[in-house]
Amino acid sequence: MFVVFLAQNIGNYQGRFEMFIKGLKKDDFEVFGYARKSPHNLTCESLKKNLQNMIDCLRHRSLVESVYVSPNSLAKSLISSRDMSNTDEELTKM
After folding, report:
1. Which H or E run includes 34?
2. Of 60, 5, 1, 58, nearest in space to 34 by CA
3. Which end of the chain is more exposed for a tag (fewer CB within 10 A), N or C?
4. What is the three-class DSSP state of 43?
5. Single pTM value for the model
6. How far is CA 66 from CA 9, 25, 43, 59, 94, in A?
7. What is the C-alpha to C-alpha distance for residues 80 and 64, in angstroms, rounded to an integer?
8. Which residues have CB under 8 Å from 86's CB, separation 6+?
9. How does the average pLDDT of the chain come out, rounded?
10. How does residue 94 score in pLDDT terms, banded at 50, 70 and 90?
C-alpha cells in the first residue's frame, strides 16, 4: 500500500508543483530561481553553458521569471558575499 501511495505522489508531484507556482503568480507573486556553481576549473565557455542549462531547467520546471546566479561560490558562504559588482555582461544576458 505505501509503495503505491509513494509512487502516485512521486508521479504527480510536478503537476501539483506547477499548479502551486501558477497560483502564486495568479496572486501577483514573482517567482525567482537560484543557481549556484561551486568553485571550479571550467573554461569560461563551459561555465556559461553549464549555468545556462541550470537556468533553462529552472525556467522550464519551476516556471521562474528571474534567476539569481552565483557562478563561483561555496554552499556555506553568505548569500550577500555572492553578489558580484563586476558581473560578466554575458551572464547578465542569460
Report:
1. strand 32-36
2. 58
3. N
4. coil
5. 0.71
6. 28, 13, 25, 8, 10
7. 21
8. none
9. 85
10. low
